[in-house]
Amino acid sequence: MRGHIMAIGQSFGMGEARKSPGSAQGSIRKHLMIGLGACALLVASASFAAVSTLSGAVIASGRIVVETDVKKVQHPTGGVVGQLLVREGARVSAGQVLIRLDETQTRAELDMVRKALDELSARQAREEAERDGAASITFPDDLLARATSDPTVRHLVEGETRLFKARVAAREGQKAQLRERVAQLHEEIGGLEKQVAAKTREIALINDELKGVRDLYSQNLVQFAKLNALERTSAGLLGERGRLVAVIAQTKGKVTETELQILQVDGDMRTEVGKDLAEIRSRWSELVEKRVAAEDRLKRVELRAPQDGFVQELKVHTIGGLVTPNEPAMLIVPSADQRVVEVQVQPQDIAYVKAGQLVSLRFPSLNQSRTPEISGSVMRIAADVSQDQKTGAPYYTVRIRPTEGQEALLGKSVLLPGLPVEAHMNIGDRTVISYLVKPLAEQIERRMGLITDNPVDHIPTLDRQATN
Fold first, then answer.
1. Which residues form the AprE-like long alpha-helical hairpin domain (predicted)?
2. Roughly how many angstroms between the first and final C-alpha of the chain, as a whole number?
3. pTM for the complete prediction?
4. Would you state the torsion angle of the CA atoms of residues 248, 251, 252, 256, taken in this order, to the nearest 10 degrees?
5. Phi and psi for 49 in degrees, rounded to 5?
6. For the segment 111-124, what is each residue's pLDDT rounded down to a tens digit?
7. CB atoms within 10 A of CB 302
8. pLDDT tens by residue, 148-180
9. What distance in Å separates the CA atoms of residue 212 and residue 206, rounded to the nearest whole number?
């Protein structure tokens, strides 16, 4: 017994000195009490862990947004600010003019295009009148109507009329000269024909005389020289008459050529007019496109509010500033749309989120001692993962609708778009022991090949279709 007590004493560091029997028994009793207390505490803790439950939740951060998103006010071509009619935070109504761009350049371009179209219209009417051989120009009715009040259009009509008359007169003068030339040629032909007739009679007389001389020469009554002279005279007359006939033929050819020139005057005019009309039609199409574009820009000179709301992120602040093409000049936050919460849920937690799931919403930027939590429910879950442009972290976008009437609990606080929100999406109650045992159980099952490395594979498929 003494040896046993000494062994116990040495094991607890009592030194080499021997203890009394009473002291050793007290130490044993003390350690037994500690052991029993520890066992009792362990049993109590296990019982508590088995029966006590903890509420699990997926926690995600986000912000307040409007249900239909903010509306961008932008311009397709941009321009210079002529009037700035709103300020940051101003309340606007649908259709209200927010910015009026300077229309000086656009209106000048439109006036130039319209003037060019009027010139082409008047020119086309004149060309068509020349082509058709009309006595006067038939201008379009709208051009004539504006000519009574617009000096520019009136001068344009008068100028084309004068040009038409001048061109007609020039062609008629040219044709008159050619007709006069034809008449002269006919007179020349008449004179030549008379000369031919005279030569013909003269040849006939010479032939009669030559016949008599030949008879006399055959009787040796005249000399050969006289016969030879008459023969030469007859041959010369025949040659002269032939020359005159050739001249007549040449003159008749000139008549035909001149008459063709008369016809060519009108033909050349029609060819020229045809080319001009084709050019006018091509130019007309180009100018009409420019006019439509200028009129469209003039219609878009006013930037209007797409709906009722508040001006936010105004980018233009001065008259004469530039509105960048296709860049938002401001945002309109809808005033009538319901505010909802948009949070980013990590991919490993998305399997625990489903449509209609209850959510507790907290507002870290508000006074936590006075601002209560409000409830809501999941209304929509993104169909695919998105990526944060700054950090590159993947996430799912989840929208939460606050329960109707819960905003009244916030008192004077207003759920403005952009307000930070922390959402706690309840995923059910579990016992404490399940939290403690589950990691160990999963490790054992994984080592036994009972589960995969992806915990989502063992979670039932959730219906993510939001219900209204």
1. 107-297
2. 83
3. 0.53
4. 170
5. -65, -30
6. 999 999 999 999 99
7. 18
8. 898 999 999 999 999 999 999 998 898 889 899
9. 10
| Opening angle at CA 33, ends 32 and 35, nearest 5 | 65
More confident residue, 393 or 208: 393
Pairing of strands 322-323, 302-304: unpaired
**Mean pLDDT over residues 240-266, rounded?**
89
C-beta pairs of 220-228 under 8 Å, 24+ apart in sequence: none
Q: What is the 3-state secondary structure (H, E, C) of the chain?
A: CHHHHHHHHHHCCCCCCCCCHHHHHHHHHHHHHHHHHHHHHHHHHHHHHHHCEEEEEEEEEEEEEECCCCEEECCCCCEEEEEECCCCCCEECCCCEEEEECCHHHHHHHHHHHHHHHHHHHHHHHHHHHHHCCCCCCCCHHHHHHHCCCHHHHHHHHHHHHHHHHHHHHHHHHHHHHHHHHHHHHHHHHHHHHHHHHHHHHHHHHHHHHHHHHHHHHCCCCCHHHHHHHHHHHHHHHHHHHHHHHHHHHHHHHHHHHHHHHHHHHHHHHHHHHHHHHHHHHHHHHHHHHHHHHHHHHHCCEEECCCCEEEECCCCCCCCCEECCCCCCEEEEECCCCEEEEEEECHHHHHHCCCCCEEEEECCCCCCCCCCCEEEEEEEECCCCEECCCCCCEEEEEEEEECCCHHHHHCCCCCCCCCEEEEEEEEEEEEHHHHHHHHHHHHHHHHCCCCCCCHHHHCCCCCCCCCC
What's the topology of domain 71-101+301-323? OB fold (Dihydrolipoamide Acetyltransferase, E2P) (2.40.50)
* Domain boundary assignment for the chain: 2-51, 53-67+338-458, 71-101+301-323, 106-299
Hey, which residues does 276 pair with through a beta bridge?
none
Q: Which residues on adjacent β-strands are paired with residue 360?
A: 375, 424
Amino acid letter, residue 121: S
Please determine whether the domains at 53-67+338-458 and 71-101+301-323 fall in the same fold group of CATH: no
Domain at 53-67+338-458, CATH homologous superfamily:
Efflux pump adaptor protein, beta barrel domain (2.40.30.170)
Closest CA to 106 of 290, 258, 262: 290
Report the 10 Å Cβ neighbour count for 408.
8
- The pLDDT score that the predictor gives to residue 157 is 92
